[in-house]
Structures are given as C-alpha cells and as structure tokens.
Amino acid sequence: MPTVRQARASEVPAIARLLSRAFADDPIEQWCLACRGYRAVLELEFLEVAGQIAPEGWLWVADALQGVAAWIPPNASYDDSAVDAVVNPVLTEYGGDPRRVTTFWAWVESHRPKEPHWYLDFIAVDADNRGSGCGGLLLGSGLTRVDDRTETVFLVTGNPRTVPWYETLDFKRSEVRTPLRTDPGCGS
Q1: 4-31 pLDDT, tens digit each
Q2: Residue 171: its pLDDT value, please?
Q3: Among 40, 38, 39, which residue's Cα sits nearest to residue 97?
Q4: In angstroms, rounded to a whole number, what is the distance separating the alpha carbons of residues 93 and 45?
Q5: How far apart are CA 25 and CA 135, in angstroms?
Q6: Exposure of 120 by Cβ count < 10 A (0-12 exposed, 13-18 middle, 19+ buried)?
Q7: How many domains does the chain fold into?
C-alpha cells in the first residue's frame, strides 16, 4: 500500500499530466474548457494550479505519483487570475471561451460554505491504479488532518459515479445542480 506525502515542486509537470488524464472525461472540465485543444489546455491549467499549490504544502501524492489530492486550507486560495492569465489566451486560441471557466467557478464560489472550511479542490488516481485503494488513502489522509481541527470539508464533483463513494465516507450532498446547461452567457 502506498503512503501519502506532500508533493515536491519538481513533480508538478508529472502531476499535471496525471490530472489531465484523470480529468479528461470530467463533465465540468469538458464544459469549461471546450475547445479544439482540450487536453493540452487541461494539462496547462493543472500545471499552473499545481505549480502554485505544491510550494504551499497543499498538494499531496501517493508514492510514485499513483494519485494526487489538493487540500486547500480554510481562508486560503490560489491565484485564479494568475492561472487565467496563462490559460485563457491558449483556450481562446483553440476556440474556447474563457467566460465558461469564470461563470462556472463564480457559481461554485457562490455555493461554498460561509464558515471556514477545507476545500478538496481535486482528487485523482491514475487509471492504472484505480480500484487499488489509492483514492481512499489520499482522501483518508486528508480527512485525518482535517479531523484534528473543527472545520468542514467542501468539494465539487462533476462525475456522478463518485458521489456514492464520497457518501460512504460521510460526505453529504448540499445540493445537486446542473448550471452548465442553464448559463445564458455561455450557451449549453
């Protein structure tokens, strides 16, 4: 069984590749980054995010990069505008619409808990390691750190298959929405 440790900055490119593979079929990412070069833009987005959060100690990996999780502490965040400054020109060049990204994540922000909370920004396991317990290990490790405090955990998933998994770990649905179909500014 692998162990969980903080990611090193030197691992960020490999982590971004893992995340782009793991999230290739994610409905949220597909909608937000819809363009000709979707996979390249997705990897660039994860490269920028992981590059910011790894040095903060918010990025955790299972040995040999079998999986990764981003645990953003209460009242903290990474610099979305810096990510957008790099990703949006490439997204636009490939025919995408950066307003989709802005619209969706603004909607998410409007639904986050008001009290201090941990944000599980993403959790992913490489396809070759799915079903091995790696995802549970990453999640359990993070929840153990959170349980030592009084804050709650918030996450967003676009994958209906993951909802029962989170519920077995005592996550509760706060609401179920499909904002991607109803956004008047960005179409369907």
Answers
A1: 999 999 999 999 999 999 999 998 999 9
A2: 78
A3: 38
A4: 15
A5: 17
A6: buried
A7: 1
Q: Is residue 161 part of a domain?
A: yes
Coil vs helix vs strand at 171: coil
What token pair was written down for 130?
């799915």
Alpha carbon distance 133, 137 (integer Å): 6
Tokens of 98: 């950066």
Is the residue at 53 inside a domain?
Answer: yes
Q: Return the structure tokens found at 85.
A: 């400054």
Q: Within a domain: residue 170? A: yes
* Strand, coil or helix: 145: helix
Question: For residue 187, is it within any domain?
Answer: no
Q: What is the pLDDT of residues 108-134, one digit of tens each?
A: 888 888 899 999 999 999 888 777 788
CA 77 to chain centre: 13
